[in-house]
Design a protein that fits this description.
Among the domains are: 181 residues; 129 residues; 81 residues, no CATH class. Helix content is 62%, strand content 1%. A two-stranded antiparallel sheet has the order 1-2. α18 runs parallel beside α21, α29 crosses α32 and α31 packs across α32. One of its GO terms (cellular component) is nucleolus. This is Nucleolar protein 9.
Length: 697
């Protein structure tokens, strides 16, 4: 009798049982549905306010089924582009022309693979670096390749950064017109690739058309958000500085992708305000309207605490108040009026409650900083009077709200600053104890600007630290580290100088000391007396620390540095000049000793002699060679008399002319040329005078 065909083994039996259980669940799905409990995700998102209200009909660009796949690079292509990225990063080309030829060859190799590279995890950085080093023609070609794909690229994890870099470096060339010389050059080039017909301005408008209808969604999209912020600033012609600490543009900490002179020129163009076509203004207004049109006032306020949407809202608010004028805030449909409908900000009003809530929110306080910075005068005065002043002391103690207080201190006038300082001074000891030094530093800086007496602030700071001057400086610069941090300090010391990360407490302590040094009187005296009381060993530790060495540099060069202080302080470094010159941070202190000894020449001579005694060691070091040049040591060895005149600030030459300090002395050929030019000018004047006399006669 035939048997039923069965698979033998324990795994086959378990698989059959699972299939039977699965069929039973499918049959009873309708019966079990009403009994199903809420999932944990449903409970967590119960209070969530969706930000796509009014955009139900908009296409969901994040649908995975609609996302195109541009293909993947094979192993050989990945290896080539990775190697190209390494070569560009090393920047060991002989000159700019050789580097440009290499970039052009990489573009030829990447022809037809641009979208693959932009979406590649390993090679997208190469695309960013290429864009930052490209000329206008190359940027236009690449921009043209991306057209038609921006809706998907701006939402891609890696390609979105390529789009951001492309927008940033294309912005300065928006108003540039194609010259006839460039057109002729393109015709002469043997290249089968057709030049794009659209200008960069038209390409930006094409990008806006591609993204139109999706602004409400892209506003809070994880990867598109930072690209949209850049696009808004480009359309407004505003500077796009991703390296600034106040920037709301970059989505992550950006490393410098450009190199040498190309990078500096590009950054200079990017960091400036630019003229833009009128079509950009119209497009910008439409985008700003479309982004918030689908949100009611409640959802718009919810956006202020949204981690992704908040930076975009900051850009929108700043452009509305700074680019289009503060009068635009009077429009009932403006973002400012919708967020803050009541300008009086009376206690208990809806606007006052909303702004008070943002004070303590880590995300919302960033928007509040933007409001304080750009708000119209009437709104800011009401905000300061009704919300800040009454509780400025407690706000200064709060880790989040204190940043808003700093923005307020930067804007108020002299009388209000005097009043607020009196309210904050009782909290200074507690702030110093907790290393919350942002508020004291902001008070010092604003008192300098407004001309407010800082004596009460100096007394409060003196009481906050130890009475011993040497201990006071150690406390201020956090030189005494707890035992638990010794391991971390050893690990930091093992890293290269450019990779070390300073402790936040030490960084803010250094900034506070530098701010105190800028004020003549009791505040700067606290630091100067501490420096004189500090041991030489501790001074060397401070000098060779990248964070604290700035305190010594400022103490040596600021106008508040008296001659009596420098006469006592500078000789402390004698015998350690070689050690400092070979250190990355210490070399800057040695550079600062040159202007610091302008009126104590005998000390300057001893330092120069110490440098001369270790010439061979210093010349072998790249860092120390800069010190050798800054101290004019070649002049010291060959023409001691000229060096002495330069050291004393007496710039003289054979012709008796006097140059400003810091300028190199003229050579004899330069002096002869100047005399020849002067004689020629005199002869020309005499001939013109004779001609005028002859004409009259």
């Amino acid at each position: 009798m035939p048997r039923e065909k069965q698979k033998r083994g324990r795994r086959a039996q378990e698989k059959n049982k699972k299939n039977e259980a699965k069929r039973k669940r499918e049959d009873n799905a309708e019966e079990q549905a009403p009994k199903r409990q809420k999932s944990s995700t449903a409970v967590e998102t119960e209070d969530y306010i969706p930000l796509d209200v009014g955009n139900e009909d908009a296409p969901q660009a994040n649908n995975n089924n609609d996302t195109p796949f541009y293909g993947m690079l094979d192993s050989e292509e990945q290896e080539y582009f990775s190697r190209a990225n390494e070569l560009l990063e090393l920047d060991q080309f002989r000159d700019a022309e050789e580097r440009n030829l290499f970039i052009e060859s990489v573009y030829k190799e990447a022809k037809g693979k641009e979208l693959k590279i932009a979406c590649s995890q390993s090679c997208s950085r190469l695309m960013e670096r290429l864009i930052s080093l490209s000329n206008t023609r190359q940027i236009r070609r690449l921009f043209n390749k991306f057209l038609g794909h921006f809706l998907h690229l701006v939402q891609h994890r890696f390609a979105s950064h390529c789009c951001e870099t492309l927008f940033i470096h294309a912005a300065p060339a928006v108003t540039n017109k194609i010259s006839k010389r460039d057109k002729k050059k393109r015709v002469d080039e043997e290249d089968d690739e057709a030049e794009p017909e659209l200008s960069l301005a038209d390409m930006f408008l094409q990008v806006i058309e591609e993204l139109d209808g999706n602004w409400g969604y892209l506003l809070t999209e994880r990867f598109a958000s930072h690209t949209i912020r850049v696009l808004l600033l480009v359309l407004a012609g505003e500077p796009v500085d991703v390296s600034s600490s106040d920037s709301v543009v970059a989505s992550r900490k950006k490393e410098k992708l450009g190199v040498t002179d190309t990078e500096s020129q590009a950054e200079a163009a990017i960091g400036q305000k630019r003229p833009v076509p009128e079509s950009f203004e119209t497009a910008l207004k439409k985008i700003m309207h479309d982004m918030t049109a689908g949100l009611d006032d409640t959802n718009l306020r919810a956006l202020s605490t949204h981690p992704i949407g908040n930076p975009v809202l900051q850009v929108l608010l700043s452009l509305e108040l700074s680019h289009f004028g503060k009068s635009s805030a009077k429009d009932p449909q403006s973002i400012t009026r919708r967020l803050i409908p009541d300008e009086s900000l009376e206690e208990g009003s809806q606007s006052a409650v909303f702004l008070s809530g943002l004070l303590y929110d880590p995300v919302g306080s960033r928007l509040l900083e933007a409001i304080v910075r750009y708000a119209p005068g009437k709104l800011f005065k009401n905000f300061h009077k009704n919300i800040i002043r009454g509780r400025i002391a407690s706000l200064s103690r709060n880790e989040t709200a204190s940043y808003v207080v700093v923005r307020v201190l930067e804007r108020i006038g002299k009388d209000d600053l005097q009043t607020d300082m009196e309210l904050i001074i009782p909290e200074i000891p507690a702030l110093v104890e907790r290393s919350r030094l942002t508020i004291p530093r902001a008070l010092i800086e604003r008192c300098i600007v407004r001309g407010v007496d800082t004596t009460p602030l100096a007394k409060a700071l003196e009481a906050s630290y130890d009475k011993d001057p040497a201990t006071r400086l150690r406390q201020m610069l956090k030189l005494d580290k707890p035992a638990s941090e010794d391991g971390q300090a050893a690990g930091q010391a093992a890293k290269p100088e450019n990779q070390r990360v300073a402790a936040p407490e030490q960084f803010h302590g250094s900034l506070l000391a530098q701010a105190m040094l800028r004020v003549s009187g009791p505040l700067s005296e606290l630091v100067y007396s501490s420096l004189l009381a500090t041991s030489t060993e501790d001074l060397l530790t401070i000098a060779m620390n990248s964070t604290t060495s700035h305190v010594l540099q400022q103490a040596l060069t600021l106008p508040t540095s008296a001659v009596q202080f420098r006469r006592q302080f500078v000789p402390r470094f004698l015998g350690h000049i070689q050690e400092l010159s070979l250190d990355t941070s210490g070399s800057h202190v040695v550079d600062a000793l040159w202007p610091a000894t302008k009126d104590i020449f005998f000390v300057k001579e001893r330092i120069a002699q110490e440098l001369c005694d270790h010439e061979h060691t210093l010349r072998d070091s790249f860092i120390a060679r800069a010190v050798w040049r800054n101290w004019f040591m070649d002049l010291y060895k060959r023409r001691r008399g000229e060096w002495k005149q330069k050291a004393k600030g007496i710039e003289s030459n054979a012709g008796g002319d006097t140059n400003n300090e810091g300028k190199p002395a003229k050579s004899r050929i330069d002096i002869a040329r100047a005399r020849f030019a002067e004689r020629a000018e005199r002869s020309k004047q005499i001939r013109s005078a004779q001609a005028a006399v002859a004409a009259k006669s």
